[in-house]
Amino acid sequence: KAGLLYFGAATDTPGFRERAPYPQSYAQYDAILEDPEEFGQTTPTNGQKWLFVEPQPGLFNFTEGDYVANLANRTEKILRCHALVWHSQLAPWVETTQWTPETLTEAIERHIREVAGYYKGRCYAWDVVNEALDEDGTYRKSVFYNVLGEEYLKLAFRVAAEVDPEAKLYYNDYGIERPASVKTAGAKRLVKMLQDAGVRIDGVGMQAHLHADNHPSEEDLIATSKGYAELGVEVAFTELDVRIKLPVDEQKLKWQSDCYEKVVGACVRVKACVGITVWDFYDPFSWVPDVFPGNGASLLWFENFEKHPAYDGMVRKFSEL
Ligand code: G3I
């Protein structure tokens, strides 16, 4: 449909799926994950992050990332790669080293050369920089920003472009799904800043960690997507989930389904929207309850492996469009 290339689900390596509620859930989970009828794309939720791939300076370990990359290959799914430069889940040494602009530049460059170099040719897209903005649309005061200012963004995209010329290079963030938000304006400024510097950026990833009871309208999602597309980049919904304030009831599941359906509607209606990724698909493996206690049931399969109404809602929506 239109520019849509995939509907996918992120996943973790088995070692990270600590909350499997009963032993058989692994087998049931894997059967869904590997079913080509369900998902045509995947992203490692954790395995390619700095903490795991470069735990010590210059010491690289691709075990966790490879699990998902190999699964994508084996099950013929498109692979989105996530994330080269992010302030969170950083290896502790990155935060404790006393950097100069020169030494941090070298460390970022080495990281991207090794990691993007290792996965070269396998990633449809890379989230080159993740979550560089604060809620007010100004730059987040990460270690990268504090030492290098916005130069670190140019550096990251420039090196990634050189190392993996085929991969689409994305800026990825949350809270940039609504057209009038200051953070959305910040994301657009960031794209323009890179373009003005002559640096390649191909896409904006709207993470879309949304709320069932207060979600953007389809028109808003379309307007935001078009706003990015007007800058000449593609867009994707990269980490979609729709949290519910527990307990779950029919009304909230209906709101949740409406929200998932609006994302599908928006992505199909905007040519520049290439795909939708849900941030895992099985409720017990979602990050939401850990970070927002009292919230959950944000994905497409309940703990007992029954499907949420949003699953059929999206299928219906796809078939109508
Ligand atoms: O690896 C350790 C393990 O050794 C230890 O036993 C265990 C104890 O709790 O923790 C494990 O680390 C956890 C890690 O996931 C791997 O499972 C961390 O505690 C946990 O905080 C971490 O959460 C991840 C979170 O990013 C960290 O910020 C989530 O799984 C992951 O879904 C989430 O993903 C992010 C995106 O990358 C960026 N956008 C927001 C999104 C949601 O926070």
From TrEMBL:
<dbReference type="InterPro" id="IPR001000">
    <property type="entry name" value="GH10_dom"/>
</dbReference>
<dbReference type="InterPro" id="IPR017853">
    <property type="entry name" value="GH"/>
</dbReference>
<dbReference type="GO" id="GO:0045493">
    <property type="term" value="P:xylan catabolic process"/>
</dbReference>
<dbReference type="GO" id="GO:0005576">
    <property type="term" value="C:extracellular region"/>
</dbReference>
<keyword id="KW-0624">Polysaccharide degradation</keyword>
<dbReference type="Pfam" id="PF00331">
    <property type="entry name" value="Glyco_hydro_10"/>
</dbReference>
<keyword id="KW-0858">Xylan degradation</keyword>
<comment type="pathway">
    <text>Glycan degradation; xylan degradation.</text>
</comment>
<comment type="similarity">
    <text>Belongs to the glycosyl hydrolase 10 (cellulase F) family.</text>
</comment>
<protein>
    <recommendedName>
        <fullName>Beta-xylanase</fullName>
        <ecNumber>3.2.1.8</ecNumber>
    </recommendedName>
</protein>
<dbReference type="InterPro" id="IPR044846">
    <property type="entry name" value="GH10"/>
</dbReference>
<dbReference type="GO" id="GO:0031176">
    <property type="term" value="F:endo-1,4-beta-xylanase activity"/>
</dbReference>
<keyword id="KW-0378">Hydrolase</keyword>
<keyword id="KW-0964">Secreted</keyword>
<dbReference type="InterPro" id="IPR031158">
    <property type="entry name" value="GH10_AS"/>
</dbReference>
<keyword id="KW-0732">Signal</keyword>
<keyword id="KW-0119">Carbohydrate metabolism</keyword>
<feature type="domain" description="GH10">
    <location>
        <begin position="10"/>
        <end position="317"/>
    </location>
</feature>
<feature type="active site" description="Nucleophile">
    <location>
        <position position="239"/>
    </location>
</feature>
<keyword id="KW-0326">Glycosidase</keyword>
